[in-house]
DNA sequence: TCCCTTTGCGCAAACGTTTGTTATATTATC
DNA sequence: GATAATATAACAAACGTTTGCGCAAAGGGA
């Protein structure tokens, strides 16, 4: 089987000729920009509606230096915990983009490979970019900055100097920790993963902040960061049980999932023997026998907001440098 | 904060002028097409490598009637079961596209809304399309066919007449059912979901086919299709327990997950009291106490193959109309 | 040396839009 | 009714490439 051959498609010149007007008249009728007579415009629009004419995107791009595409940079993820987040980001960005006649061009790139991004920028295939994961030492941000292309990050950027949209991870974790502390839960352990990701730094800050508000500091022996493997988590959980932690605050559902399994295996009762909470609800624990206290963020809203801000930037509007979105603290059985 | 103003960027004419050659020489040096002297070409390439020049994609598109973009149509899904499938498809298509200097333009569209797709086609923003979910009564396929744009479907199309790539769902389900039958498991019940999706029709055919090979037919009372809600699944499971089904063959992990929970709630032992298998492994049952027999498909391979075939079509090559990819039958505890 | 073929490169048209400028027709002003 | 002001639409240049064609130089065979 072979691909179909290109069909001859109507150009603006065909429309102009068939209507006996100039191409500029047709162009201005469609865009509504410039001076154009009411009657002429109606005649052109009627003709187009009836006979069909669709502008050639490449020609428009060339003439206007505007692609009506936005680039969406996604990290390589493959855990069921991360997937829903980026999935929702993408859906939301796509939705907002479509609603504004933009298409999204998706680039998936791991850690440090900046070439796909550079290609997109250099070839001027997009009018702006949404970056969906930020690192402490981010290699994409400087590149984007230097390119002077409008961009917004979903997630915060070290040192600022970029338009950022994020869930208020710090505030949320702080509130969750505070609530636990106010319920007389002491000895709250922190189990964190990859600390190079900004989101994880924010969450940890929130944990510390809650103690700070009370003029206290958490017991350093209860703090585990950079738990990057199941075996590391296992070791941490075992140690924490020995250290009599009263609560295990997990940085995300990946860790939480593992913690819950380990505790179940060991026959530790939740919440009687130890309480458990997660800093990011991801649906993956929905089937778990007991319901888990967690933080809920509206990811679709996050994506929509980021995209909207980007579109405003592209339009040359003034936008806030940092937008933090609201969260919900969901208290469930696991911290009763 | 405001978006940066457009930077003046080097055009092919700048390069030509600075090198004292014509634009055609530069163009031919880069593309390698047409007659070009070896020395001149090297000089141009060296200059470009050192000073940087990146062709304007819009101008190229216009001149060549080629966008170097492919469209990827994703359905609106939000279950943890469906997500990994489309996620992997996207990653694979993106990977293959990047490797061939294409970018992917993602359109997310639910059921019957064909407008986003039409826009993409009419504006000629893509050279071809990958469609990632097919329905019995698919509204995208006729549209794509009529547009004469190259496209391939991931999933089969009723009535053929499209380039299709799919896991061999029918063959896989047939083999799984046959294996169970050969192990003296009788009374295999079938629990299926939305039958409008082609993938589900294929799986059901496989189930029937295994019986057919033996000159038999399954007990019609054990067949449930169109189980579209948890309550429907619950009712089916209860009835099947009464009807003494020996095995519950679930069309996918969404149904299987629910079935496993219901059985656990009711204290039914697997595999002693009833066996359970799923027609599509999705990782979601990984945490389940007992391991589950299922079919495993290589989704990345599926995506890569689909994309490769599309690229071949765009290049005007001959491609197979239907490609079915291999599968694995994974036997685990749940059917012991 | 002459003629023919090949090779290398420049010229200019084409791709399909948008948009600044100009010409013309219409209306308003006195 | 002449002139100024305005509204409308056409003209043509520009956007940055690719590519068919033509010309000159180089190479080859007699």
Model description:
- Two copies of one chain form a homodimer.
- By secondary structure, chain A is α/β, with parallel strands linked by helices.
- Chain A folds into three domains: about 5-65, 434 Repressor (Amino-terminal Domain) (Orthogonal Bundle); about 70-165 and about 300-325, Rossmann fold, CATH 3.40.50; about 170-295 and about 330-335, Rossmann fold (3-Layer(aba) Sandwich).
- Chain A has twelve helices and twelve strands.
- The first copy, chain A, has helices at about 10-20, 25-30, 40-50, 55-65, 85-100, 115-120, 140-145, 170-180, 200-215, 230-240, 255-265, 300-315; strands at about 70-75, 105-110, 130, 150-155, 165, 190, 225, 245-250, 275-280, 295, 320-325, 325-330.
- In chain A, the strands form two sheets. A six-stranded parallel beta sheet of chain A has the order 2-1-3-4-5-11, sandwiched between helices. A six-stranded mixed beta sheet of chain A has the order 7-6-8-9-10-12, with helices on both faces.
- In chain A, strand 6 (about 190), helix 9 (about 200-215) and strand 7 form a beta-alpha-beta unit.
- In chain A, helix 2 packs across helix 3, helix 5 crosses helix 12 (about 300-315) and helix 10 (about 230-240) crosses helix 11.
- The first copy, chain A, is elongated and about 85 Å long.
- Residues about 1-5 of chain A have low confidence and may be disordered.
- Chains A and B meet through helix 4, helix 5, strand 2 and helix 6 of A and helix 4, helix 5, strand 2 and helix 6 of B.
- Strand 2 (about 105-110) of chain A pairs antiparallel with strand 2 (about 105-110) of chain B.
- The structure holds a DNA duplex (30 and 30 nucleotides).
